[in-house]
Amino acid sequence: MVGIKDVAKKAGVSVTTVSRVMNNRGYIGDQTRKKVEDAIKELNYSPNQIARSLQSNQSYIFGLIVPEIRHPFFSEMVHWIEYYASLINYKIIICNSVNDKEKESGYLKMLKEHRADGVIMCSHTLETDVYKKLTIPIVSFDRIISTDIPYVASDNYHGGELATQHLIKKGCKRLLHIAGPLNFEMLSNRRYDAFQVVCSRHQVEWDVLEGANINLTFEDNYRFVEEKLGDNLINYDGVFCSNDLIAYALSMYAKKNKINVPDDLKIVGYDYNSFTKTLQSPRLTTIKQPIETLAKQLVYSLQKQIENKGKRGADRSIYDVELIEGDTT
Amino acid sequence: MVGIKDVAKKAGVSVTTVSRVMNNRGYIGDQTRKKVEDAIKELNYSPNQIARSLQSNQSYIFGLIVPEIRHPFFSEMVHWIEYYASLINYKIIICNSVNDKEKESGYLKMLKEHRADGVIMCSHTLETDVYKKLTIPIVSFDRIISTDIPYVASDNYHGGELATQHLIKKGCKRLLHIAGPLNFEMLSNRRYDAFQVVCSRHQVEWDVLEGANINLTFEDNYRFVEEKLGDNLINYDGVFCSNDLIAYALSMYAKKNKINVPDDLKIVGYDYNSFTKTLQSPRLTTIKQPIETLAKQLVYSLQKQIENKGKRGADRSIYDVELIEGDTT
Q1: At a CB cut-off of 8 Å and minimum separation 6, what does B318 contact?
Q2: Which among A33, B16, B32, B134 counts the fewest CB atoms within 10 Å?
Q3: Are the Cβ atoms of A79 and B93 closer than 8 angstroms?
Q4: What is residue B161's predicted lDDT score, i.e. its pLDDT?
Q5: More confident residue, B147 or A245
Q6: What are the residue boundaries of the HTH lacI-type domain, all occurrences included (chains A, B) (predicted)?
Q7: Is the confidence at residue B113, as pLDDT, over 90?
Q8: CB contact under 8 A, A92 and B93
Q9: Cβ separation of B53 and A49 shorter than 8 Å?
Q10: Do B164 and B286 sit in the same domain of this protein?
Q11: pLDDT of residue B1
């Protein structure tokens, strides 16, 4: 491998001079600079970032743990996190927890060993204690881990309100909410809170069906609807789903079972990800999360912590959501 | 930050002893081992992987450059690459080139500086010379860079044959192929080669429409169909599209313009990614690429090169594809 010494030899200068040129430090004559630059080019030399990061104690790497990168919500999230991190010269190591506790803690250990400068947590399978003990900067998406760990989320409560109010405004009298898993204190549970409050306020009957973890395939979502809801679907005239993939599976289930959407059954989804945007028939009525903005804030919140030497702040960033009206309500 | 010296002090042993315990080298008494392990746990110490990789000259990091991680084909590819890399203890730094030359070469430079042990190239905006000059192991997806750089691809030629034969078997007489960009020597161009050959063999009239780079949004794909094809669509009774997103946009365009699919127009796509699998109406007839297998082979081919100390082999791995019959033919 080509080292800085080889460059110095080739250019006929000292290692210190090469280092000065590369770091733009101290006075260097134009001719010397050119000799060094030519030698770097000719030898195809690139400075050893690992050695540098050992000196500076900064790796310029963020860890990013997501539950399922194939899910369109998270693949968009990853896209934008990578984009905003690259603007501040950070690289991303992605880790796919597939909602597996062991994998998630294994990744955290690995990121620590690699001296990642910080971690963006979008997967949440562990108890909050584990994250609290981490000695590197961390920012969480959609989960409050502790008062001193910043989080970023969309306004899940408002999303729940918008969806429920919309269904009621459209005439629904018996509502169902298909929620995500409610075991952890996820901020997405606020959608359910708002759903209950709005239903009660309008004296509308309601039920909740607790969802499994994210189902990626259509078959899994369809089976969930069929097995967990099935014939009971007839008891409801409106369903607020915790994500668009399940909303789509529900609309297909209704179609197959001759339940007319939106006349007899109204459906509202959540996310407005690339799948939803591409889908034309039916166009789902859904709640749009500002994915790009969320990603940007996750990156900047982590950067801020790092600049403050890991001192955790109480940064809480909540971004508003929006109702997108489609054909299912 | 906690260092090995702190562990040694806490355990009341020498740094060498701590190192021996951590690396399982030399004789260590049970009691000493326990003292060291307790100290590691208590201090929440993790070995510095950066320092280690500087010693071993291996970073256990692969670079992965994709053109667009939000595209369902590539988000699945990333998922499986990450999965198979993690099985051999490699981490992935993902880079999104968004088909931008400058970004792509910037990322290559960065990966070299970070001493990535190898690079998986799924984005191809640069001339082959750039890749050939890279001094780190590299494996390419869907592009032949040079005889000494291994590549992995699905059998694009066979895919083109299957699609075209299927359309002809279904009675089509005037076929169109919507290709990807044909400027680079991409292996996906073999689909077009096969299309021409099969059409000629069956004396079927054909045309080709050269596509733009991957369009991610429905609007972009729809606009492409509308502007580049538009009224000319009436001249064809079958279209073989280079990916499923454009096939879907085409089917929606036909619907809007009262062209009956499949009676008056038959459509075959390519990829069978998560979008296609989820989509129920219409179910696209398409060519299935074995995404998981491709990802696995990319990882293993790179690993092989690294084990052979960067000596590039002529590994060429071509995997078969499959016709999935849906409602559009």
Answers
A1: B152, B153, B154, B155
A2: B16
A3: no
A4: 98
A5: A245
A6: 2-56
A7: no
A8: yes
A9: no
A10: yes
A11: 64
CATH code, domain carrying B248: 3.40.50.2300
Helices (H) and strands (E) in chain A, counts: 13, 12
Q: Is the predicted pLDDT of residue A129 greater than 80, yes or no?
A: no
Shortest CA gap A293–chain B (Å): 16
List pLDDT tens digits, range B154-179.
999 999 999 999 999 999 999 999 99
Q: CA-to-CA distance for A116 and A139, rounded, in angstroms?
A: 13
Cβ contact, residue pair A112, B248, below 8 Å: no
A274 interfaces chain B, CB cutoff of 8 Å = yes
Q: What is the pLDDT of residue A326?
A: 97
Mean pLDDT of B119-125: 86
In contact, A100 and B109? CB cutoff 8 Å:
no
Question: The domain that contains B32 carries what CATH number?
Answer: 1.10.260.40
ipTM of this complex prediction, to 2 decimal places: 0.80
Q: Domain for residue B9, yes or no? A: yes
- Domain of B31? 4-47
Give yes or no for B252 touching A (CB within 8 A).
yes
Dihedral angle at the C-alpha atoms of B301, B304, B310, B315, nearest 10 degrees?
Answer: -50
B163 lies in the same domain as B91: no
More confident residue, A45 or A90: A90
Q: What is the rounded CA–CA span in Å between residue A76 and residue B270?
A: 22
* pLDDT value for A269: 97
* CA-based nearest distance B216→chain A, Å: 8
In the structure encoding, which two tokens stand for residue A244, read together? 């668009």
Nearest to B69 among A1, A57, A75 (CB): A75
Whether B78 and B106 map to the same domain: the answer is: yes
Distances (CA, A) of A118 to A138, A142, A312, B95, B197: 6, 17, 11, 18, 54
Closest chain A CA to residue B106: A86
Residue A133 or residue B191, greater confidence: B191
Least confident of A153-167, B5-19, B139-153, B305-319: B305-319
Q: Is residue A53 part of a domain?
A: no
How many structural domains compose chain B?
3
**Token pair of A33, please?**
């600079």
In a domain, A327, yes or no: no
